[in-house]
Write a structure and sequence with these properties.
Blueprint (H helix, E strand, L loop, with lengths): L6 E6 L5 E8 L9 E5 L7 E4 L4 E5 L7 E5 L7 E7 L5 E7 L7 E6 L4 E7 L8 E8 L2 E13 L2 E9 L7 E5 L8 E6 L7 E5 L10 E4 L7 E3 L5 E7 L2 E9 L10 E4 L7 E3 L11 E6 L7 E5 L2 E5 L7 E4 L12 E7 L2 E9 L3 E4 L7 E2 L11 E6 L2 E8 L2 E6 L5 E4 L13 E5 L7 E5 L5 E6 L7 E6 L3 E8 L2 E10 L7 E6 L7 E4 L8 E6 L5 E5 L2 E5 L7 E2 L13 E7 L2 E9 L2 E5 L7 E2 L7 E4 L7 E5 L8 E5 L7 E3 L9 E8 L3 E8 L4 E7 L8 H5 L2 E4 L6 E6 L4 E8 L4 E6 L3 E3 L6 E9 L4 E8 L1
Antiparallel strand pairs: 1-2, 2-57, 3-4, 4-5, 5-6, 7-8, 8-9, 9-10, 11-12, 12-13, 13-14, 15-16, 16-17, 17-18, 19-20, 20-21, 21-22, 23-24, 24-25, 25-26, 27-28, 28-29, 29-30, 31-32, 32-33, 33-34, 35-36, 36-37, 37-38, 39-40, 40-41, 41-42, 43-44, 44-45, 45-46, 47-48, 48-49, 49-50, 51-52, 52-53, ...
Keywords: Signal
InterPro entries: Secre_tail, VPS10-sortilin, WD40/YVTN_repeat-like_dom_sf
Protein name: T9SS type A sorting domain-containing protein
Length: 769
């Protein structure tokens, strides 16, 4: 079954052109990875999970299909970690992580209102701290125990904090520096006593390791149990909190692997008799008791699963000895029982999510479309041949856009560790099904040619270069290309002419460049005129690259710190060129002799419509200084509209391509955690818009409005309404309301986003009088 989320937008331009948009997640399910899979406590077959990045996803059909539930929008690189269901089943909790920043926190997402209702900022945020583990008290979510790690010079330290008043005040109850540098592996609060705290300890650097620290006074004092034993997960019997299970952690031989059980609240422990199979790490990762049937217990280990149906009296072990099998179980990270069917369990493992319908005895791969799309992306469209190439796991997938058939090439298994940055593949824009693939390594790099999308290859070139930055084919000589390569420094740039008309006698020529800088764009027209973007300048050659003339008039705003990222030609008007740069989009109407700056912000690629005069698309990629965004124009770049990152559900991406139809454009986006995304914009002029005719389900009135805005959704309920200024800034938000008082807003045009209880998202532009 195709698994997707559809995001409908209605954007109304100042010229009363109506624009509908649709976002679909359409990548292959062969590479999907989700984690922390957790069943809802009351809704049958409803499960939650997190992606590799900043999204919570939900399934209403036991994992058959998925939708985006929540997007964490903190900035580039944000991650959601350690997703849990609250004890009363009404909320999801998670750690919000943004590397190397002071904005990390623990958040509480209310399921009913579809919004974050609590945020616990870490008390040591200024240390760039992040959450290692946490636990809420079952009966009061103002009581929280959290362990944090943070960098200290070239080392890492840890502090553990406790709050009983919702984070207004924190007590530091543990510090590695004061405790033989021993780190905490897991924390827990007794389900029946908010002052009884448990800390399982791991490795230290002073010869002291392990142990269980227990406090009965909110962390003011601790006693130690199981000294010297490295411990990790801790779990309580849902019917009797005096019954506690603890598993051993990673010790590399210092601790014998065991599952420990206490029946007296932690006063004493006994080893549960389980015979473990020797592995590499030999540690217990997860202990889960079925809340609705406590006789069921599952223990996840590095390479095996132990299940009990009699309350832990006896266990059955299922061993998975092949750690290189990335399509099976390895290193469980979480387990969740279906409250409506005790035989069904979801297991989050290191490689893939797994499902069992027999209590854990057998597992099947639960496939999703959410993965990291690595590498670049390219598209070919010429006559009857239409191909898309998008990166996955250091290789790529070829999709025939006519049939939808996908074929993977050079995909690296998840179990394979590689320092190789992956490969770059570009589609030849003259010859169908021809691609050029570049792979770099410490031993040198190679450029290969394939005339069948990658099934067979012929090497064209060996070169010491780190990057393959651009390629173009001579229309008059389709067996000859210009190819640009780069290194870590602009001075390492190389431009080569490669003639492979005789595949057994390939002729390569290194060309002299007018200046040394990255080449991110090459154009060759039907008269063999060559235009290249070198650094911040544009050069033209009419003699095959022997001599170059600068065509940079109008680009003076760019400095030595800027860069041109893309160079393209309008297929409907060969005199019209466009470039994307760190200083925005520039357009030339005279073949590159003069350039006019049309936008001012960072843009990474730009494209003209192949079908409709005036239509253009562009993207800003995720980087240290920018968030992914889409831009579009319907008048040859004179005016642009932007779909900002929050409107795009907070996705991260560094790859996009465009497919133009007569009245629409599809942006293919290779995202960091949602896989391949298709974002379609309908640019059909419809005169004065009728929203109900377009979406047939939503009403916002009056429009224009001066004070009260009424909102209604047919066959759904409004869960959240957010209003954005036209510069993208959020100015108002409200949960589960049908009216909004907008009288405090300044006069002007705003964009209203509505999220329903069915996870639909609608946009409409309004005027505030």
């Amino acid at each position: 079954m195709k698994k997707l989320i559809i995001l409908f937008l209605c954007l109304i331009s100042f010229s009363f052109q109506q624009i509908y948009a649709q976002l679909e997640i359409t990548g292959s399910e062969e590479y999907g990875r989700i984690f922390d899979i957790t069943y809802d406590a009351s809704v049958p077959n409803k499960v939650y999970a997190v992606t590799l990045g900043n999204h919570i996803v939900v399934s209403e059909d036991n994992g058959a299909s998925w939708q985006i539930l929540y997007s964490l929008i903190l900035g580039q690189g944000a991650e959601i970690r350690d997703l849990k269901l609250s004890a009363d089943g009404t909320a999801l909790t998670f750690s919000a992580f943004l590397p190397n920043t002071t904005v990390n926190a623990i958040m509480v997402y209310d399921i009913a209102s579809a919004s974050v209702i609590k945020t616990f900022a870490l008390p040591n945020q200024s240390d760039l701290a992040y959450v290692s583990s946490y636990d809420f008290y079952d009966a009061d979510m103002d009581v929280l125990l959290v362990d944090t790690n943070f960098p200290q010079g070239f080392n890492t330290e840890g502090r553990t904090f406790y709050t009983a008043d919702g984070g207004a005040n924190w007590d530091m109850i543990y510090y590695t520096t004061n405790n033989d540098t021993v780190f905490i592996n897991d924390v827990a609060i007794s389900p029946t006593d908010p002052n009884k705290l448990f800390l399982t300890r791991g490795n230290g650097s002073t010869g002291v390791d392990g142990g269980l620290f227990i406090s009965v006074d909110g962390g003011q004092n601790f006693t130690e149990k199981l000294p010297g034993i490295i411990l990790d997960p801790i779990t309580f019997d849902p019917l009797n909190a005096q019954n506690i299970y603890i598993g051993t952690g990673i010790s590399f031989g210092g601790t014998v692997e065991n599952l420990y059980k206490s029946t007296d609240g932690g006063a004493t422990f006994n080893i549960v008799p389980i015979t473990w199979t020797e592995g590499i790490l030999d540690n217990i990762t997860v202990i889960k008791i079925n809340d609705n049937n406590p006789s069921q217990l599952i223990v996840l280990e590095e390479n095996e699963i132990a299940i009990s149906e009699d309350g832990g009296a006896t266990f059955q072990n299922i061993v998975y000895p092949n750690v290189d099998d990335s399509e099976n179980y390895y290193y469980g990270l979480n387990a969740s029982y279906n409250p409506q069917n005790s035989d069904e369990i979801f297991i989050s493992a290191n490689y893939i999510p797994l499902f069992s319908n027999d209590g854990g005895e057998t597992l099947t791969w639960s496939k999703t479309p959410y993965f990291t799309s690595t590498g670049n992306m390219d598209i070919f469209r010429n006559g009857s041949e239409e191909n898309l190439y998008y990166g996955v796991q250091f290789g790529y997938v070829h999709r025939d856009l006519d049939t939808g058939t996908e074929t993977p090439y050079d995909i690296v298994p998840l179990s394979t560790f590689s320092n190789n940055p992956g490969q770059t593949q570009y589609a030849d824009q003259i010859t169908p099904n021809r691609i050029f693939k570049f792979t770099s390594s410490f031993m040198g790099s190679s450029l290969v040619l394939s005339n069948d999308n990658g099934a067979t290859e012929t090497q064209l070139l060996s070169i010491f270069a780190n990057r393959f930055t651009s390629v173009a084919t001579f229309p008059s000589a389709p067996q000859t290309i210009f190819a640009a390569f780069g290194g870590f420094d602009p001075s390492e740039t190389i431009l080569k002419k490669i003639d492979f008309s005789d595949i057994n006698n390939i002729v390569e020529t290194t060309l002299n460049l007018p200046t040394l800088n990255y080449i991110n764009g090459i154009l060759i027209d039907s008269s063999d005129k060559i235009t290249i973007a070198v650094g911040t300048d544009v050069y033209v050659s009419t003699d095959g690259g022997s001599t170059w003339a600068e065509n940079s008039t109008g680009l003076e705003a760019m400095t030595a710190n800027d860069l041109i990222f893309d160079l393209t030609q309008d297929p409907l008007n060969t005199d019209r060129l466009a470039l994307a740069s760190s200083k925005g989009i520039y357009i030339s109407e005279n073949g590159g002799q003069n350039w006019d700056r049309k936008t001012t912000s960072l843009v990474y690629n730009v494209a003209f419509s192949t079908e409709t005069e005036g239509a253009m698309m562009a993207s800003t990629y995720s980087s240290q200084v920018s968030e992914f965004a889409l831009h579009f124009s319907t008048n040859n770049g004179e005016n642009w509209q932007t779909i900002n990152n929050e409107q795009l559900l907070g996705i991260g991406s560094a790859a996009s391509q465009y497919y133009f139809n007569e009245n629409s454009a599809v942006a293919y986006i290779g995202s960091f955690d949602l896989g391949l995304i298709e974002y379609t914009i309908d640019l059909t002029p419809l005169g004065t818009p009728d929203l109900q005719a377009g979406l047939n389900s939503i009403s916002i009135y009056p429009n224009p409005a001066s004070d009260i805005l009424n909102i209604g959704v047919k066959d759904s309920h409004v869960m959240q309404t957010t209003i954005f200024a036209m510069n993208g800034a959020q100015v108002m938000t409200a949960n589960a309301v049908s009216t909004l008082n907008i009288s405090a807003l300044e006069r002007g045009v705003y964009l209203v986003r509505i999220r329903t209880n069915k996870n639909e998202v609608f946009f409409k532009r309004i005027i505030k009088e």
